[in-house]
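Box S2. Input/output pair 1.
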Amino acid sequence: MVIGIMAVAIADGIVQVHPTDQVQPAWLAMILGGPAIFLYGRIRLERLVFNRFSMRRLLSIAALMVLAVPLAFTTPLIAATAAAGVLLGMAVADARHAAGRPPEAPSPPF
């Protein structure tokens, strides 16, 4: 998860310096890969702590991968906005799923 956060920080710097330039493949890898790496780390964390598999996070990683092709022809700002949209959609889905439920206990209990 930390590597994903570092990649997102690098991507933020790219977007701030080159918001309207043509996106480069390495930039796109940071912009979309950072959130994907973070989500992969979160999937592993949930597997260890809660003994469950998060399909929403896997679908979000897949959405980021699918978006890579059309976003290769845009700007870094548009790519970052699309990545933020995917993450926002996942967060809303998580919030709707958790609404009205008690906090989840770790498995196995500590």
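Box S3. Input/output pair 2.
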Amino acid sequence: MIVESSQQQLLIIGWRERITLPELGITDIKAKIDTGARSSALHAFDVETFQRNGKMIVRFKVHPYQRDTHRTVTAEAELLEQRQVRNSGGHSQLRPVIQTMVELNGRRWQIELTLTNRDVMGFRMLLGRQAVRKRFLVDAGRSFLQSSTGKCKPKKTIQNER
């Protein structure tokens, strides 16, 4: 469903969606839409930084599927910065930050993404509020409104009770 405001149309997404990170070679990853988190985060391990042609580059590995440590994607991106981020436990952590393209249901846009080990977390990726603001409205009671779970075609409507 599309909600029209006076300035633009916003798609409604569920609290979790399947997305693509095409520049990183990740064709399918389940992301939790987390409006409580300012930034987006991706599960990454074996993270290393190095210099190439005068630019700082970060190389890392990703297990894009939950409970699957066999399928591994190795990716590289330009390092924007190292940033202090408070994790869900309230502890501050220095994380590499990259910028990359994200795709959901044919829509593409750039996001900043922090890299961190999310092995013990339920989702390999969090899509934070900076990534979704002014693009989507989030229906916290629904899932996969703009993506398929592989089991059935997702519903794309929401009923408004007034």
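Caption for Box S3: The chain has one domain: 2-139. Residues 129-132 form the longest helix (4 residues).
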